[in-house]
Amino acid sequence: MVVSREVAAMTVDADLDRLADIRALVRDVALSNDAPPACLEDLIQAVDEAATNIVLHGYGSRGGEIDVEARLVDDTIVIVLSDTAPIFDPTTVPEPDLSVPALRRRPGGMGLHLIRLATDSMVHRPRRGGGNILTLSRSLDPRPKEDR
User: What would the DSSP string read from start to end of the chain?
Assistant: First the structure.
């Protein structure tokens, strides 16, 4: 049985100035569901990275909107980011070569790596009519080596 609580949702302009609003929504949902600090921090970082990518790389100077939904499903917080930017599936981007020293790597490209580290799953699907739906999830349960 899947227990799903009320959905927290918002639509914001795809603007870096609105990322704080998205972070606040995620923080509120996590705190209202007694998320441990590590889970809260992971979710905020992952959603911030994903929304930043939508703003900078998805829409660029064209502008648009980001729909954000957050809810608890069983013991997992699920965040859904939807946009109408050109279709881009971040799950197909390969992991960075971490054997190359950071100062010798091309700038950028670590955001998706951080999202993968901070979440239990990242799922992409095209949005009907154009755009993207990115679903990020993180269990409330502590991971190994996290404070319990």
Answer: ---B-PPEEEEEES-GGGHHHHHHHHHHHHHHTT--HHHHHHHHHHHHHHHHHIIIIIITTS--EEEEEEEEETTEEEEEEEE-SSP--GGGSPPP-TTS-GGGSPSS--HHHHHHHH-SEEEEEEPTTS-EEEEEEEESSPPTTS--
